[in-house]
Amino acid sequence: MNVRRSAAVLAAVAVFGSAAAPAAFAESASPSPSAALPSGLYGDADPKFDGVFRQSYALLAQDSAGVKPAAKSVDWLTGQQCASGGFAAYRADAGEPCDSKTMFDSNATASAVQALAALGGQDKAVKKSVGWLKSVQNKDGGWGYGPGMDSDANSTGIVIGALTAAGEKPQSVKNQDGKSPYDALPALSMSCGKDGGAFGLADMKTGKLFPNADATAAGVLGAHGKGLIVDPANKEAATPKCAKADTAEQAAANGTGYLLKTLAKTDDHLMSALPGTKVPPDVGNTADSVLALAAAGQQKQAEKSAQWLAKNSAEWAKKSGPAAYAQLIFAAHAAGMDPRDFGGADLVKQLNAQGPAPQATDQAADEKKDSDDGSGVSIWWIIGVGMVAGIGIGFLYSGNKKKQQL
Asked: Where is this region: Disordered (predicted)?
């Protein structure tokens, strides 16, 4: 996976039709031989559908691990911002102004806000992006992948994280109808019966919600007002009981219960739900679940799942590239584990190797564990191939790539 992608992708397919679906299952993308990648960009896969997203994840993960990213990497990210404050997934020529053809992306914008707010010194850029996010808030109080798209739990969750990172109170971010994102989340939560209280993902053809672990992790994280950097819980919460989701708090409790039950069935990790796959372990969504569970005070399960990741994520991360290493660093942080000794791997060193050498790092920590080189190609599905051809929509981040895939 290349982190938090598939749910919004599928939601977009539902909106714009299924013609793009076959292209969505391409496993990876290589750079065009005629196009040189920007020197400040992390990863060596084609950035067309995930450049801003993976860069934001990489910079935020570095900052969380005490690493000061290369100046040109930060400059590349800020240079992608449009005058309105919004970000597209990637702009090959950032010198050209954004216009009516620019496919603005709430997920790219929200991830950039989280990274730039953490790095500091980017108040103007952060403020502009938050203003743009507020301007495209839906009538129900939530967000979709792009302006005009229906709200989904994944997009709403990552935007809440951005608002929190920028010093906003998400519950106070209301549209003209007085709706906040906490009004949108309960409507995206499902019943306690056969749906288990999960947050839903819209079916491509009917638009009907169906239970989805990735949407659930994003919804739980958002309902707790958390971004991608989640501190370990210092007190274990009681096992939540499922009830009618009249509030975002109850929707989060229901979703937490769904994750606990789902993880318990499959030895502390999730399985891929991507149609047409052989149901492999879903590493990326498991990592997302660690963040959600830590935010919900379910630290024991968060740690168990993180320990599973430490034993089973190396090959996935090597294939997937910078966003995957970043996601594992986020999970390690939430579980109270050392990202520089994660199943014997130094995730920080491996992430740093994916792009320009950082300005500064904790050398003592880097030397603590000599790990394998984490070079690799960022893996993510190219729903955008079909969408660009048909309607110009690029890669959607909102759910982790179900394909492993995050």
From this structure: 354-374
Mean pLDDT of 215-231: 98
* Cα distances (Å, whole numbers) of residue 326 to 28, 135, 207: 18, 29, 32
Q: What whole-number distance in Å separates Cα of residue 47 and Cα of residue 90?
A: 6
- Interhelix angle 51-64/106-119, nearest 10 degrees: 30
pLDDT tens digits along 161-191? 999 999 999 999 999 999 999 999 999 999 9
Q: For residues 237 and 350, what is the distance between their CA atoms, to the nearest angstrom?
A: 34
Backbone angles phi, psi at 189, to 5 degrees: -90, 150
- Report the alpha-carbon distance of residue 118 to residue 138 in Å, rounded: 26
| 161 close to 221: Cβ distance less than 8 angstroms | yes
Joined together, the tokens standing for residue 238 give 């009681």
Taking CB atoms within 8 Å and a gap of at least 24, the contacts of 172-175 are 173/134, 173/137, 174/141, 175/137, 175/138, 175/139, 175/141
Instruction: Give exposure, 38-53, as e/b (b: 16+ Cβ within 10 Å).
Output: bebbbbbbbbbbbbbb
Q: What domains are defined for the chain?
A: 6-390 (1.50.10.20)
Q: Would you state the torsion angle of the CA atoms of residues 33, 318, 271, 18, taken in this order, to the nearest 10 degrees?
A: -10
One-letter amino acid at 73 equals S
Element (H, E) at 210: strand 209-211
37 CB neighbour count, 10 Å cutoff: 16
The predicted structure's pLDDT at residue 402: 35
Q: How confident is the model at residue 370 (pLDDT cuts 50, 70, 90)?
A: very low
Q: What backbone torsions phi and psi does residue 128 show, to the nearest 5 degrees? A: -65, -40
Rg (CA), the chain: 19
pLDDT in tens, 226-262: 999 999 999 999 999 999 999 999 999 999 999 999 9
Rounded CA gap, 13 and 179, in Å? 26
Rounded distance between C-alpha atoms, residue 325 and residue 253, angstroms:
29
| Residue 322 backbone dihedrals phi, psi, to 5 degrees | -60, -40
CB proximity list for 50: less than 8 A, separation 6 or greater: 2, 5, 89, 90, 323, 378, 380, 395, 397
Q: CA geometry: angle at 39 spanning 33 and 41, to 5°? A: 90
